[in-house]
Amino acid sequence: MMRSRIREIARAWPVVVALALLPGCGGGGGGGGSHGGTADEGIEVTVPGRFPDTGSRSSGSIVFDVTPSSDDAADDVLIDITRPHQFANRASLLKNGEFLRFVITTDTGRETSISVRIGSWSADMRHTVAATWGDGCARLYLDGERLADSTYTGELLLVRGTPIVGDYGNFPPSATSVERVTVYGRPLAPEDVLDDFATHAGNVVLGTTTNVSGDGKLGQVCITLHGGGHQVVGTQNDLVWDRGCAELLEDTCQIDPLTGKTLFANLFDDAQLRALVLDFFNTAPIDDGPLYCCTFALQSEEPGRCCSFQITNTGASDPRGLELPSQAVGGRLCPTDAPATCHP
Question: The whole model's pTM is what?
Answer without folding.
Answer: 0.81
